Amino acid sequence: MQRFTALLSAALLSAGLMSATAHAQDAATAPDAAAPTAGADAAAAAQNFSDDDLQKFADASQEIAAISQDYTTRLQGAEGQEAQQEVRVEANEKMVEAVRNSGLEVETFNAIGQAIQQDPEMMKRVQEMAQS
Predict the structure, then answer these.
(1) How far apart, in whole angstroms, are the C-alpha atoms of residue 71 and residue 87?
(2) Can you give the pTM of this predicted structure?
(3) CA angle at residue 100 from 32 to 33, to 5 degrees?
(4) Number of domains the chain is built from
(5) 88 near 68, Cβ under 8 Å?
(6) Structural domain of residue 124, as residue ranges?
């Protein structure tokens, strides 16, 4: 259980990083009115995740946990804000790659992460998938 909690924490942390990066990019190109709609769409889709998507989320979360651990060590060794930012950007790119390699889009991964925080039954299903 502790292992899964660590995986989930890493996944949600990285999801936050990925969404912050995506939001920053979107904010530069999209009107402000579109932001609430995107969140509403993700919430609406959250109820329709297949077992396959949940398994992909569990797999990607495990990969992200490993990336997070590696880059946390690198971040601690980086000197100066510029070096730390470079480590963060590289870590974020690796996490996005891990999500995409799992077969999920970043938006779907983030939506599942939000959904399992609100749905204990879905959380239990993902925990079981991560343990198998």
Answers:
(1) 7
(2) 0.69
(3) 10
(4) 1
(5) no
(6) 2-27+51-131
